[in-house]
Automatic annotation (TrEMBL):
<feature type="region of interest" description="Disordered">
    <location>
        <begin position="1"/>
        <end position="24"/>
    </location>
</feature>
<dbReference type="Pfam" id="PF03883">
    <property type="entry name" value="H2O2_YaaD"/>
</dbReference>
<protein>
    <submittedName>
        <fullName>Peroxide stress protein YaaA</fullName>
    </submittedName>
</protein>
<dbReference type="InterPro" id="IPR005583">
    <property type="entry name" value="YaaA"/>
</dbReference>
Length: 250
């Protein structure tokens, strides 16, 4: 089972790992595209106004440009510790047991605008690049990533659970992947899409899948696993699941 997570705009700073070795990351066949994008970001960092425009940054975020300038030399962290925010707070990998963390490193991967996809234990530097960014003189990120990344994800042996946000899923869709929509249900039975806390619920699902020793092979098995954990999950056919949470918990 492979669980694809979205990245976060913000990243934990620093780290104690060596500078990034692109060929050591998951799916080394992506190294040419990764190298092209890292080089482009490092070069772009020499032009602060252009960096701000391309990356949608304000002057108060110029430290993000400095991070990009140091991509080849800055320290690294495991991917599951580098990314921050609501989803990763809910995932809380630091509190997993050793066995659970080993499963998390094996099962969880992060979609990345810069690296395409990185495994949970892959050592990556802090950086700033979003799926919607367009770098000067470069094709769109979707045009760069789709031909290279799609075959990698399509070749995954086993169930793929795609929790990426729309813009990251668009970089390389995975045919047949299980997706998860989160809906809140009011006392009168009406429902609405969860927006703000959508990532938190997906982070909890990712944690559950990392912690479980079960290995579901299809969407039905995955639904069964989630329901055994006390989640209200509906399956109306196909590969889409719906997680329904009471409004008070949404």
């Amino acid at each position: 089972m492979l669980v694809l997570l979205p990245p976060s705009e913000t990243k934990h700073p620093g780290g104690d790992g060596p500078p990034v070795d692109l060929s050591s990351l998951t799916a080394p066949e992506l190294t040419p595209v990764r190298t092209e994008l890292v080089e482009a970001l490092v070069k772009l960092a020499d032009d602060v106004p252009a960096s701000r425009a391309a990356l949608a940054l304000s002057p108060k975020q110029d430290d993000e440009i400095e991070r990009n300038a140091a991509l080849w030399t800055s320290p690294t962290l495991p991917a599951l510790q580098r990314y921050t925010g609501v989803l990763y707070d809910a995932l809380d990998v630091r509190s997993l047991t050793r066995a659970q963390r080993a499963r998390a490193d094996r099962r969880l991967a992060v979609g990345s605008a810069l690296f395409g996809v990185v495994g949970g234990a892959d050592l990556v530097p802090a950086y700033r690049l979003s799926a919607g960014s367009t770098l000067p003189g470069q094709p769109t990120l979707r045009a760069l990533w789709k031909p290279a990344l799609s075959p990698v994800l399509a070749a995954v042996d086993g169930l793929v659970v795609d929790l990426r946000s729309g813009s990251y899923a668009a970089l390389a869709p995975v045919p047949g992947a299980v997706t998860l929509q989160v809906l809140s249900e009011r006392p009168d039975g009406t429902r609405s899409v969860v927006s703000h806390f959508n990532k938190a619920h997906k982070g909890r699902v990712a944690r559950l899948l990392a912690a479980s020793t079960a290995e579901p092979g299809d969407v039905v098995g995955l639904r069964r696993l989630l329901r055994r954990a006390g989640l209200h999950v509906e399956h109306d056919g196909g590969t889409a699941l719906t997680l329904v949470v009471p409004t008070a918990e949404a």
